[in-house]
Amino acid sequence: MIIDKLIDEIKRKENPSVVGLDPRLDFVPGFIKEEAFKSYGRSLKGAAAAFLSFNKRIIDAVADIVPAVKPQIAMYERLGADGVAAYIDTINYAKGKNLVVIGDVKRGDVASTAKAYSDGHIGRVRIDGEEFTVFNEDFITVNPYLGGDSLTPYIEDCEKYDKGVFVLVKTSNPMSGQIQDLPIVDKGEIYQEVGLIVSGLSCKLTGKNGFSSIGAVVGATHREQAEKLRRIMPSVFFLVPGYGAQGGSAEDIAVCFNDDGIGAVVNSSRGIIAAYKNEKYEAFGETGFAEAARRAAIDMKEELVAAIK
Predict the structure, then answer these.
(1) pLDDT tens string 239-268
(2) Is 106 considered catalytic here?
(3) What's the domain range around 169?
(4) What CATH number does the domain containing 222 carry?
(5) Degrees (nearest 5) of the Cα angle 80, 215, 238?
(6) Active-site pick, 45, 106, 187, 301
(7) Angstrom distance (rounded) from CA 126 to CA 257
(8) Torsion from C-alpha of 143, 44, 19, 202, nearest 10 degrees
């Protein structure tokens, strides 16, 4: 199962982290942008080409030390068709390096529309009797707030095609509690009820490591809630955003793991891909941006492992 591949790679590389590939033009070194603009002009196509070149060099630098990457589709979609093409090419390049790919797409809609999203991202698109793979992520993030029937198409495709989902349960943004922490009479808070729903779904697609391919997004910035969710979702694997730049520390994240040190994968995006802009890594310079990303990824690994132990 795909969850076993992710966990096996975490164990093999002794690293429970994932690099978020969320490029912005101000993250991309000038020399990469100029190469792309020389070929395609200062255009959407030029920006998309710069993103892809940037991503490839980051992937090359970290592929041997991290188990997974997580491209955020919005960063690419805003460039239109060229950006979406760069997103797909990024996924294919990462998978060619044997990395697990988590597509951060946060889709959530009524069942018929969810089916279309699922077909494109983790299922198959059927055209006149032929089947086509489009985005081909291993996992995607999904929004459960339209109810259980909105998740069903994704779960069915996970079963059919050996894919996985991470369901938004407690997100890392500062105002997530405005809705997610609202109390439900006799049932705790909304995020806990969503956690129970995900825990119920997780009895499906359980792999050899005891975790399901149906996981949960649980933010690093809300330690108390994460600790509660770990207790009520013992067989649910966590995708943990919010580390580093958003304020989540390695100590905060430790509560997301089981006693054996397994149970979560932790994301850092700009803290890795834009590390060369950080004073700590500025000696690498703009041309050494990929080496700076590698050093930052190693530092993150060491901090996480120390906190988990």
Answers:
(1) 999 876 656 677 778 888 988 889 999 999
(2) yes
(3) 2-308
(4) 3.20.20.70
(5) 95
(6) 106
(7) 40
(8) 20
